[in-house]
Design brief:
Keywords: Membrane, Transmembrane, Transmembrane helix. This protein is an all-alpha fold. It has three helices and no strands.
Length: about 70
């Protein structure tokens, strides 16, 4: 696949390398600007498994706040 793309690029080696670099940068930009933001709500990265409310009560009790 990559060899076919490389053969389709015009110009000598230096020009091909620059065009390939621009293409890779464009793909990365599209992923970060449009694809990842639309996929992020469906990913489980924000699903917490640790109960932080108990830790907050324990920290308040240690500080003398909760009685």
């Amino acid at each position: 696949m990559y060899a076919a793309i490389w053969r389709a690029l015009p110009g000598p080696l230096v020009v091909r390398a620059l065009i390939a670099l621009v293409l890779v940068a464009a793909v990365v930009a599209v992923l970060f600007l449009w694809v990842f933001p639309h996929v992020a709500p469906y990913m489980p990265f924000n699903d917490n498994t640790v109960d932080t409310s108990g830790a907050a009560r324990a920290a308040g009790a240690a500080a003398g706040g909760a009685r």
